[in-house]
Amino acid sequence: MRVVILSSDLMDRSKLSAAWPDADFARTVARLVDLAIGADLVVVDLAKLDRFDTLVDVSSPIVGYGSHVEAERLEAAADAGIDAMPRSLFFRRLADPSGLIPFV
What we know:
104 residues; 4 helices; globular
């Protein structure tokens, strides 16, 4: 499975790398969009996005995680077609392989 991830947080990257050792990491949205061509899954730290419409050309499923206190941001991401969830839920699911089923 080819996974592309937008995240620059080192703690997040280590957890994501443990789940998907061969994932491609992007530090910018432009690079993410380029890498997303042909990806099976795109994972996005929602704090790294200024606008959600920048991902409109990404045809792969997109999962986003963000702060639970930014409910409006999570809702806006969901409205843009991103499977958005609080980071605590995302990383809890990431730790348990059965929790990844909705993502793939």
